[in-house]
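pasting for the record
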Amino acid sequence: MLTITCYRMKLSSFILHFRQLLQKIFGRKFPVVPSHNNTPQRPISIISVRFSDEFEQNIACSPCAVNPLNQLITVDNTANVFYYSLSEAINEGLAKAKHDLLVVVHEDVYLPEGWHACLETALAALEAYDTEWGVLGTAGVSAEGVLRGHYSDPNNYCNTFKKNEWFTPISSIDEHLMIFRKSSGYSMDNLHPGIHGIGTDLVLSAQQKGARCYVINAPSIHKYKDAQGKIINSIDDSPKIIDRVNYAYIADKQCCDDYIRYKWDALTPFSSIVTQYEKWRHPADDLKGLPLEILACLDNPIILLGKGGGGSRMLSFLVEDCGVCLGNTVNVSGDCMDMVIAVYQGVIEKYKCKAAWQKELLVSQLRLAAVRMLKSMDSAKRALWGFKLPENLLLLPELNQAFPCARYIQMFRNPVKTCLRRTHMTARLDNQIGRVTLPLAYREAGLPVSQILADSSALRMAYTTLHQLKCALSFCRNQLDSSRYYEVYFEDLLTKPDESVRNVCNWLSVKQVSHTLASEVDLKRSSRPGIMYQEDIEKKVKEILRPLMTTLNYE
């Protein structure tokens, strides 16, 4: 039986990839909604969470959404700054629903002309068969992991229904469109940390209560138009799809996948449209029985601390001259790519996840990522290894617990000049990490998160810089002694590179191995003016950072 199921899943995956290839060659295909003579009679409460301007171009202009028979409930969660999770935002909308029939739909879904009538036809057929149906969608997978439904997205056009076929049972639906009844009492799980898998979770919850779930033949169009109203014809036209290759996106999805795997461990393995959920395994289990050569060096890395956007690549050059290996894969900024997913995931777990068990994974995940890095590293380099990521500043207590003998080198740069030069991802809303760290910084400053949307990029940078460096300074100066904590200044690295390297070598008790820092110093680059902001913005940045400037002896 298992062999047959695996075969079906592989066949379904092959068909999906074949359809994607055809769509890439011939262009995107959209569904044709069959004409209906009947006028819709069953009112709907449509709940949609507004994340971006794509809302106005898609669900907000769908015919059923503007039909006075129905209720459109918009929950404002622009850039995810107002609610901790999508589930929390959806539940806010569910509480406002007037009608029993609920349609929870993503902002970037368009429901074409005739969709409501099509839905009623499908419901009539379904309710003649199963009056106690649980959750419905337009895209899903069967218990065997086979794709089912009728929908279009930039990746694929799918219609698995035969003529006059209106529904088919499934074990998971895609969350871009979820239909259920208010009287069922269903809601989203507020502990679920993100967007990925909430459709799967809702279906499994309904099935746990004895209800059967289905996809229906009422086709949806997912990611129809972009924020400017231009039709999305391919994956390259969709910023949201392009975003999926980013490390922040991957870390955010991993947190969601972990949540589903843990919650429904008894049912694993099983599939959704995009994810194969394997058996839950605690990361600490993979840390058992480590080779002695890994254990000998695991606890004592050199952890580099520097504010993102503050020239911390110079810090990487500094420690490389001291013989510190910063990982198997290092980007142009000197950041350790071996540790990036674990650190990003740690930031999300610490500040966004609500489930206590999920927060407790952080330390083990950091250690496990380091183990994997060390296993792939030449044995000679393990003697003095470390890593740099700007987000380390947000995880210092956890890093200290994960690596109890770690030593920390922190680099400071004039924070005002840093904030007036360029932004860092932790100060932007275009990524999953910034959507966690920006609200965190504004709340810490006693400001409403709505102000984030009105503030300039320089002010966002100022508040996040203040928050992150205050936290780092408090921890390092109060918790670490001089044998484990060392401070350097960016300006000294530029003007006294050789002396800076010698000082750090003496602190580490090692010999200098190269002169990269001196060769990379570019005084012209460092003195280039930053972005030109209005005078009142610059003045405000200085006001925000004045306490920090004083603490760091820049005033």
